[in-house]
Amino acid sequence: MSALHLQESLSALKRKADVEDVNRSLVEVNRELSLRPTLAELNRVVGEQSLIMESLCSEHLLGRWIWKSGKTKGDKHAVPWNVQNINTNPDNFVWERDRAVITCTAPGLYEVTFGFYSRRKPAVQLLVNGEPVLSAVNSATYAVHHSSGRLAAVGPHSAGNVSGLTLIDFLALPPKARVSCTYQGEEGEGFLGLRKM
User: Fold this and answer.
1) Neighbours of 33 (CB within 10 A)
2) Do 41 and 60 form a contact (C-beta atoms < 8 A)?
3) Domain that residue 67 falls in
4) What is the pTM of this model?
5) Domains held by the chain: number
């Protein structure tokens, strides 16, 4: 053992804890332990956190798909969804690359959004199980919904068509609803979004 180690050991022995030092340390340990929550408190907090997470997750049952190819399918001009941008519930929002139909397996209320971008405003229809439920006609000032709204553009933008033809609405979908869009107009791009309410 080196002289330095021997000197440190002797110094440590001289600083040996007395009863007061031990009692002081025990009081500190007890104080730290008393700050820790009980099992009941932890269970309560976990339960509250679960409720919060459940409500947040229910607000985010959504899917969004992008049409990038600019080409439609068939004589009905169905829009093929080329890219899945987000899908937080693939069991409910069933998508296949380049297919025109998104299947919503669960019935209920859904928020639907879509946007289509081309040099001129196109004519777009949203279909549920092959039947049109929303139409946006080829006009800068009018959208036909079977119960609402008008769209109005303010004129051309220097960067091109930055606003597109967009729509937000709400649908009561049946079980296994097949949602699709038809598009008539110049080659363009678009998106479709669905959110379960």
Assistant:
1) 8
2) no
3) 61-196
4) 0.66
5) 2
| Paired tokens of 31 | 């104080």
Of 12, 29, 53, the one marking the end of a domain is 53
Domain boundary among the residues 34, 53, 72 is at: 53
pLDDT in tens, 112-169: 999 998 888 789 999 999 999 998 875 545 545 444 444 455 666 777 666 678 889 9
CATH of the domain at 115: 2.60.120.40
